[in-house]
Design brief:
The protein is an alpha/beta fold and 557 residues long. The protein has a 7-stranded parallel beta sheet, with helices on one face. It has a 5-stranded antiparallel beta sheet with strand order 11-12-13-15-14. A hairpin with a 7-residue loop joins strand 11 and strand 12. Helix 5 runs parallel beside helix 7. Bound molecules: 1-deoxynojirimycin. The site of 1-deoxynojirimycin has 9 residues, from loops.
């Protein structure tokens, strides 16, 4: 366990344990050439902004060549930069600029599936059944007299079947390949040694280029058991499997025990470097199974998405925090905290919706909820309180671009401009994730609010103007100012990864103290409450006659 008293003493090898990591969704961050898509040079230009924000690391969502069937999570070539976003030289320049600013770089790696444009997949389509090229993916014969039915009735995550039929090189209807996500994302066969070796090469490729760590996409899906008979989707549902599999590891493709053999090999590669490269698993698994991904013999850290699915509610927050700190102790990793990312409705909007929706708030929009029904003022106030609470917790905090501006979800994007395969594959019944991926407003006016010199690839609403970074630079109480101050204080306040609950202020108040005497108090209730003795160094909203008002967090030392 890290016992550093401040960030300067955090050892090189454990920098990640209490890091504030800022997620950049490259296509929507900053566009340097006016083509409407954010790019690598755009990120480099914003390094001074990132430095002044006070984060420790940047996590870049995929920047690889891609047809963008799933926002870049459909990778054509794992060891290159999308020409739409720049070149490898641009990447090197960005990495150097970040490092010069004292910011680490985490790359997103997508091992479960490639894109259907990857050279391996094209080779598989051009090669016969049973060939080595087909064995890099998951091809099966179909059922029925002519193989016209998929090998199983499983649905893909984005809707529609998880199998797609191909046309064989001789023009006849042929085998089927598995894709847990979109059909443009064929699943790789991790039982194949060549696939494993190629990823080790990719990890070294980026590590040699100065990448400090990796975020591992759907880390729990890589190994599969497709022996016949495959369970039907009804059987899988009856047995209680969700996106997070079974607690005993027996689900055919989520969270199987063998997946950890892969990460043990990855760990050997990470440890070839000094400091060792880090990794964080995106693994939607039962909390009891998260520790295995976070083990120091595996990826080292795993996302905990519990806060991101919770309401703004004291008892939910307390239970989640306590549970995850216990789990972190068990795995030896530090905990991770996330309130927003590129897959969910921004927390400033979630907290302005009726309670009880959690991660399923998209459903609410599907059922007729509109932008007008979101209480954006309340949502923002609560988001600021929740963010301050999160930044006081032991462990690392993952922030999503735009949350430092208090940005709201764009819930009413026109259907014609939506890009998410979730929207497309569900024929629009699922609104998808584009609303949190709208390019950032940097200035209150001008083309695409300073994102670039042209229109942005997803349209920005007029109200984005009020959230512009440049405007918030000038405002003392802005959300940007709050994040900057919180991140700066957090560095100075680094301490042992522990907290002690302080009870007594009622069920609607969460009060904890870190070992160096740093108190964080959040009022989830409706009435102002008193504060512990000491100096208030920061509060998410103004105090009222010395008391902590509703929906507010204060830090006291
Ligand atoms: C998880 C990523 O966060 C999401 O954006 C993506 O669609 C899926 N994995 C598939 O790669």
């Amino acid at each position: 366990m890290s016992t550093a008293a401040d960030s300067n003493q955090v050892s090189a090898a454990t920098w990640w344990r209490q890091a504030a990591v800022y997620q950049i969704y490259p296509r929507s961050f900053s566009d340097s050439n006016g083509d409407g898509l954010g790019d690598i040079k755009g990120i480099t230009a914003k390094v001074p902004y990132l430095k002044s924000l006070g984060i420790d690391a940047v996590w870049l969502s995929p920047f690889y060549p891609s047809a963008l069937a799933d926002g870049g999570y459909d990778v054509d070539d794992y060891r290159n930069v999308d020409p739409k976003l720049g070149t490898l030289e641009d990447f090197d320049e960005m990495a150097s600029a970040l490092h010069a600013a004292g910011i680490k770089l985490i790359a997103d790696i997508v091992p479960n599936h490639s894109s259907d444009r990857h050279e391996w997949f094209r080779e598989a389509l051009a090669s016969p059944k049973g060939s080595a090229a087909r064995d890099r993916y998951i091809f099966r014969d179909g059922k029925g007299p002519n193989g016209e039915f998929p090998p199983s009735d499983w649905d893909s995550v984005f809707g529609g079947p998880a199998w797609e039929r191909i046309t064989e090189p001789d023009g006849t209807p042929g085998q089927w390949y598995m894709h847990i996500f979109a059909k443009e994302q064929p699943d790789l066969n991790w039982a194949n040694r060549e696939v494993r070796d190629d990823f080790l090469k990719t990890l070294r490729f980026w590590s040699d280029r100065g990448v400090d760590g990796f975020r591992v996409d759907v880390a729990h899906a890589l190994t599969k058991d497709l022996t016949e008979p495959m369970l039907s989707k009804v059987e899988l549902t009856l047995e209680g499997a969700g996106f997070d599999g079974f607690e005993d590891g027996s689900h055919p493709f989520w969270d199987r025990d063998e997946v950890h053999e892969i990460y043990a090999e990855w760990r050997e590669v990470f440890n070839e470097y000094d400091p060792p490269r880090t990794a964080v698993a995106e693994a939607w698994v039962h909390a009891s199974r998260r520790a295995r991904y976070a083990s120091s013999e595996g990826l080292g850290q795993a996302f905990n998405f519990d806060l991101l699915q919770a309401d703004f509610d004291a008892s939910q927050f307390r239970r989640i925090i306590a549970e995850n700190l216990t789990l972190a102790e068990e795995s030896g990793a530090s905990s991770t905290w996330v309130l927003s990312n590129h897959d969910v409705v921004r927390h400033a909007t979630r907290y302005g919706l009726p309670n009880g929706l959690g991660r399923h708030c998209l459903q609410w929009f599907r059922e007729g909820g509109t932008a007008k029904d979101v209480n954006t003022e309340l949502g923002l106030r609560r988001a600021r309180a929740a963010s301050l609470l999160m930044l006081a917790l032991p462990g690392s905090a993952y922030l999503y671009q735009g949350e430092e501006l208090g940005l709201q979800e764009v819930v009413d994007l026109p259907a014609a401009s939506r890009q998410d395969p979730w929207f497309v594959r569900s024929n629009g019944t699922d609104v998808g994730r584009d609303g949190c991926r709208v390019p950032l407003p940097w200035t209150s006016e001008g083309s695409s609010f300073g994102f670039g010199a042209g229109a942005s690839h997803l349209p920005q609403p007029e109200w984005f103007s009020a959230y512009a970074a440049a405007t918030q630079e000038e405002q003392t109480g802005s959300t940007l100012a709050l994040y900057r101050k919180a991140l700066r204080l957090r560095r100075n306040l680094h301490t042992e990864e522990q907290l002690k609950w302080v009870d007594g202020a009622g069920a609607a108040v969460l009060h904890f103290v870190r070992p160096n005497g740093w108190h964080s108090v959040t009022n989830f209730g409706t009435e102002p409450v008193g504060l512990p003795a000491g100096t208030v160094i920061l509060s998410s909203s103004a105090l009222v006659e010395g008391k902590l008002p509703a929906d507010t967090t204060a830090w006291i030392i």
